[in-house]
Amino acid sequence: MLNRRLPGTQWAAVVAVAAAILLLSPLWGRREEAGRKGNTLRPEIVEVRGEVRNPGAYLLEGPSATVAAALAAAGDIPAEQIREASLPVRTGQVIHAARNASGGFEVRLEPMPAAARLALGLKLDLNDASEEDLLLVPGMKSEFAGEIVRRRRQAAWARVEDLTVLSGVGPAGVKRWRDYLRAGEAD
Description:
By secondary structure, the chain is α/β, with parallel strands linked by helices. The chain has two domains: 8-115, no CATH class; 123-182, DNA polymerase, domain 1, CATH 1.10.150.320. The protein contains six helices and six strands; from the N terminus they run αββαββαβαααβ. The protein has helices at residues 8-36, 67-75, 114-119, 131-134, 142-152, 171-177, and strands at 44-50, 56-60, 93-99, 105-111, 124-125, 181-182. A hairpin with a 5-residue loop joins strand 3 and strand 4 (105-111). Residues 1-6 and 29-36 have low confidence and may be disordered.
């Protein structure tokens, strides 16, 4: 059992993501049905922070969701004020918006906290997850998380299956972690 308290911002993100998942659950059946018909209706779940009227988590129509769509949802910011307006966004990203000296917006994209990404069903990358992030994975012990981080300093992890080189990790452990971890490959 994890006996570590999440910081307020991570907790808020996890709650927001869980609420979004609950709200989206009726759509998943439709998404599968649409997928069988050749259409894909997959919303993108992003969080918007910074100098916007309504910061928070947003469901954007995918796969063509953009920074402009996210910022418009969070505060009616005209796309012409955003240099990065056409950048695509995907589930699990945080969009930070700040006004610049010319009155436009500067935007920075980064991943959501690990707890939120895991709650969304996204995998953590063995090559950039922190030791603390790895401890959020069910069944991950601190000695395994520490060794994962130490070993990647010498060489990047190529596959999740390579974790069997760790003392005490076998194929069953890797199979359990496969739903939560990746090694550079896309989710």
